[in-house]
Each structure stands twice: as C-alpha cells, then as structure tokens.
C-alpha cells in the first residue's frame, strides 16, 4: 500500500481547524503535521515514501478491492466505500472538531459479508527525523500504543497493533453490522496520556459543527455545490483559535515535477487573509469576516515599517527558510523546504489587498473600532513613505525588484480606498494628500505601465511582457473591464500565456523570476480570466472556461495550486486557498453576469415605456423651429450625443 506515486488529486483533506491530514484513495494518511498546520510532520510519506510516516487502512486483499469516496454532505468527514469479493465496508475518516488536542479517528462499519482490514502505522515525528519510542499500554480488551520522541507524543487506541520492522500493524475482521474504531491523539510528551474520547458523540458533534457553519452560506447560482465546498475548505484551512488562514495544508509539493520550485505554504499571507474577508462578506458571513479582520489587524499591529507580506498562524514574524534532508521530496522534487524566505520581501500590492478587503467589510456593516481605523491610517502613512519603491511583486519574484504594474495598481487602490473611507464614511484622515498621491500613481501607471504600441498593460515598467496579475486591474476598479486598454491586455494574455486553454502566471522563459525550470498553468489566474470575461460581456466564454476549470478539481471538490496540462494532473501545494478564493469570486461574477443578461430585456422594455409616458403630445410640424427641424432631420439631436466623460465613475476610468 505504498503512496510514492499517489497523485496530488488522489488525496482528500480531513481536519479540525487546527491542522489537517491528507488521505489517499488507497486509504493511506500520508501527511499530518501536529499539533498545527505549520508544525513538523508525524506522517510525511507525501514527500517521500512509507518509511517517512503514514497510517494505511485498506482491505487485506487490496488488489481485489474497489473503492469510492465522498464527504458526508457539508462536512470534512470522509467516507470511503470498499467492495471486495468477500463483502463491503465503509471507512469514516475525520478529526473531531472539539477534541482537546488534535485527533484522527478511523471508523470501519461492515455493510455486507466479512472483510479483513489491515492497519499499517508508521509514526515519524519531526519531518521523519525522529523515530519514536513505542510502548504497549492498556489491556487485551482496550489496547493502547504510546509513541514518544522529544516534545511529541501520540496515543493510539482501539486496535491491537503489533510491531514489525519499525512499523505496527494489525488485521481486523469486520462483518455486516459491526463497527470498529481506531484513533490517534497527539499530546505534548511532558503531559499525562489524555483520556479516551467518546467517539460516537464526537462524530455527531463534528458533523453538526461543519453543517452549522455551512448552513449560513449564501450562494449565487453558478456551481453552487462547488462554491460551498470551496468555502468549507477555506474554513478548514483556518486555525480555530488564532483565525489565521494558511495558504495550503502542505509544503514543497512541486510546481515543476522533479524541479526546485517547491515552497512552504503553511503560513498566512496578508493577501489570502484579505481575499478571504471579501469572499466571506459576499457569501453571508459578515460576522466571520470580522474575526478574520481582527487576525489581520493583530498581525500588522506595531510599527508600520515592520509590516510583512506573511506571518505564522498566530502572527509570528520569523519564518526562516530551511532545506530538509530528512524528506526526499514528492517524486524526488527537492529540496523540501520549511519556512519561507519571501517573508522578508517588500510587496507593495499587499497594502491594496488589505485596504480593498477592509472596505468590503465596512460596506457589509462590519464597524470600525478604536483599533481598526487607526491601524489603517498607520498603514497608509507607511505606504506614503515607500510607495515609489520597486518590489518583488505578487509572485514573490526572487530576481531583482521591479516596478510591477499590478503592484502599482494595488498601491493606487490602497489610497483610493483610504479616500473613499473618508468621503463615504466620514472617517478622519489626510484626504487631499491621498487624492493627490492616488492621481499621481494613476498617471504614472497609464504612462509607464501601459504600452500604447502593443495596446496592452505590461508586467513591469521595463518590459513588453504581460502577466496574468494584470487581470486584477479591472477587478479593483483601476480600469473598466471593457476599457479598450483592458481588452487589449486580455488579448495579449490570451496570446502569450495560454497553455492548452489555461493561463500561466507569466513566461518563465523571460528570466524575471531568477529560477530554473518551468511551471504549469496557475489555476487562480484562469479564474481571474473568468471574472474578466464575465465583467466585459463575454459571458459564454466565462461560462465555458469556468466549467472546464471546475472539472480540474478532484473527486471531492479540491483544487491545487497549478495544473499540469501535459500529464493531466494537479501540481503545487494542496488544497490551495488562493485557488478556492479565486473560484468563489469567479463563480459569483458569472452569476452576476447572468442576472444582468436576464434583466436586460425587461430593463429595456421598462425604459421604453417610461420614455413613451414622458413624451409630450405630438406637435404639428410648424411648431418646430427651423433650426430644430433641420437637426431632427439630420439625426443630430441630443439623444445621439456621447455622455460627458465627467459622468463616468472613478472606478470605471
């Protein structure tokens, strides 16, 4: 039951909003970090092989068995149905939401006949660097296995596991109507072994907890089932105590199989936290959005000069990047990294991401308090000092800093939202100074970030290359989605970044990122293109692309970071919060475009009726003055005039 070749899309996630495990189609839990998402792994076979830690559970006659799986509706309780010549069973894998410390439960229920199920347990703490000391406790009727190494300990209950070559295994026979459970509970090794859980009660509470959260979800019509799963995934990636949302549950799943583009995403990017606020507000979770906002504000509290692009789950600032020797990497993709050196980068766009999200929260009724607006004032004060600096850009380029057009537009958006907070909500601040900076940055972008000869915005001021992040210019209101400059940019992106129907972030061949190798289409970028299509009147294109993208999710509705179109497989860290966020917003954009299209005939008919009702009684021809008559005959009346440009809103310019 090895998991070396398990594809990324063959994993499902279970979690308790403190950490998460990846369960393969083959029944093996190959990734679990304890006690937090960003803790060292106890099961690390995902980035190596069975010897790096896993817990496999499958029929003993695996070759003759067939399986299918699904989540219990609106939960992260995974049900795997196994069918063998001898019978059928189902396995429920879940992590109780209210357990004192992280716990994995594996519950087998017999459905037909009798099936022999094999457990194979290999605990390897500290990224497989620590082989634990194992000790049998309990009794024959209530077996207990204790594993201890350094600060970590785990207790396994419910199955009598026997040692064999640094592994522990057992075969349990399950007949129709029978239920057997095994659980693994982590705890600090200096504490007493925790008491056993009441599993039936925990299962009911866990199902109820997920469904209670999902019940308040407001969906908008396009791919609603997948939208709900994506919002639940964002909830699962959010730490229940701190409110921080990790970018993914994994580290070092490769963007380029066999290559070096392997990064640790188990941290909280300000960008992801900000986009989560927007997604929650738009889907009925205003109260939840306030909690996410509070995490964000705590993280950036202090000297604004110390603001980072990313933090640990509780707001930790030092995320030193290291390369591990204890894990060989997914399909040999090395190095495996923990920590992320990008935390030291300056990325100007995060100021805009934060300010845009906090405006969404304000508009949804999340009130400013004595803490929140002063922090935003401080943040914009810092931006006034650094706005003209080159930066590393949204993609955390490890080459030279540049003036990336997307970053410049997001800096524009930061000052724009600051101005609007003052004008619309009466909040205090230097509105005139921010207006002037906003206008100055706009003029700079329109001069240096737009190439008139190409008819397109460009990736940065010193290139003619484009970048998929330019699709965000219309999303934040810098330019209208149907502005000719935006349409020209979309055409260039389609021409140069499309690979087999999906978008790359940028052309790696340009050398802008300073890294060897290539990468696959970045799924969030294609969802951004759906959004742009929907907003610019290309609804059929938006719907078609959205449908193809949804088909790239796995059988339980999870997206990774990228998609390898050559080998038709998911790539990059998994599940990826940014991908799910981009999907949720793209689906909403399509729903809104459908509503506009559906209402257009009725609106036009109502306008015609209003015009007819308001028209004066027909006058005799002689009543028209000669000049007016000539104008009417020539068709040059006022109704044919273009609207004054001053009537176009700032957001559409």
Fraction of residues in helices?
Answer: 25-40%
Per DSSP, the total helix count is 15
For the terminal residues, how far apart are their CA atoms? 58 Å
- Give the biggest beta sheet: 15 strands, antiparallel
Mean pLDDT: 91
CATH architecture of the largest domain: Alpha/alpha barrel
* Low-pLDDT sequence parts: 618-653
Question: Can you tell me the CATH class of the largest domain?
Answer: Mainly Alpha
Explain what this protein looks like in three dimensions.
Helices cover 34% and strands 20% of the residues. It is an alpha+beta fold and 653 residues long. It folds into two domains: 198 residues, Beta-galactosidase, Chain A, domain 5 (Distorted Sandwich); 381 residues, Glycosyltransferase. The strands form six sheets. It has a 15-stranded antiparallel β-sheet that branches. Strands 16-17 form a two-stranded antiparallel ribbon. Helix 4 packs parallel to helix 6, helix 6 runs parallel beside helix 8 and helix 12 packs parallel to helix 14. It is globular, with a radius of gyration of 28 Å. The protein starts with 10 loop residues before the first strand and ends in a 19-residue tail after the last helix.
Task: Give me some keywords for this one.
15-stranded antiparallel β-sheet, two-stranded antiparallel sheet, Beta-galactosidase, Chain A, domain 5, 20% strand, alpha+beta, Glycosyltransferase
